[in-house]
What does this fold into?
Amino acid sequence: MLLSDLRSDGKLQVEDEADMGSADGAIGVIGGGQLARMLSEAAALRGIDVLVQTSSEADCAVPASTRWVQALPTDQDATRDLARDCGGITFENEWVTVDALMPLERQGVTFVPSLASLVPLVNKLSQRRLLDDLSIPSPRWICLAEINPGSPALPPGWTFPVMAKAASGGYDGKGTRILENLNDLAHHLRNVRAQDWLLESWVNFERELALVVSRDRQGRIRHLPLVETHQSHQICDWVLAPAEAEPLLEATAYNIAASLLTRLGYVGVMALEFFYGQEGLFVNEIAPRTHNSGHFSIEACSSSQFDQQLCITAGLPVPSTELVVDGALMVNLLGLQDAAADGHDHNLQDRLARLRSIANAHVHWYGKQELPGRKVGHVTVVLREEHAETRRQMAMTALNQIREVWPNPLN
It folds into this structure.
């Protein structure tokens, strides 16, 4: 494994080119949502076949894939069949039944990331223990089961509000609860399995940041630019790349990521979400996969997060990930209430056409049913201004143009 050094500007110095090699053939993806779809689109550009394992033909990755294996993502027998035609298998999300897949890995199936490296990451409680073990700052936390249900009280030094998070299965605001007082805490304790939840102290952050990184089979680490994210009701609204950040902040984020990748022997793509404020930089969550905060990279970087995942899984040389534009804004499109009123949105094509008419905009429509509040697409606007302040102004102008066509239904 190669060790990364610090450059004079404080960033990680990493190798840009991998040892030359050839692809191992088709790759498999467990899961059939938009992340698998965008991976399939990246694979089509390189002429690589993608086989997706998912239960429904209606899942949006199916039309973009080479072949569909009809089975639940947890179906071990289907994954065994999938592996016969694939050089490597990767995952769309972290809801992985690691124990069920272990026999396949022992039989020679290549999973990217490896199952052993996923074990500490598929559960938020084990994520927090890993961060503590590496002395990586994260919000103060305890397992909810440590709270006495008969006389609930916060740990010494804690104050309300606090955040309750499900240890597994949460996404886009699901599996989280903001608890404002003792009554909320007592009610939550009565209605959940406490050992499956963690309680997290509130962080008074100024900004939310995110970083997508990759580590290839030779141990080389690459990263997308650090980005600023903005949430609405705990669902990502928009992402601005690159984030305005001093070199020390960037280096801290990069080194945290490198520590995690190295400690786990992780091969694949990983995303880290951060809180940043006067108390410093805190890891909020780790996603062992491609991530919403990295979608901008399709248009803005020399190799997107999906291209990184593809090349690592297929055994191809892994390209560098530099910005090839001055910046980018990514805006999520969530299903609108009026679109679902009769099960068919007669104005969809008009709305998409209006979005495409915005200067430097690239529209990604996932082909999912437009249910209210559901992520159904995104728009990336390429920004061509090297000065950060002017670039942000351009981004906010573009954001307003997009929201005039496609409002955020959560606001």
Summary: The longest strand covers residues 268-277. Residues 1-23 have pLDDT under 50 and may be disordered.
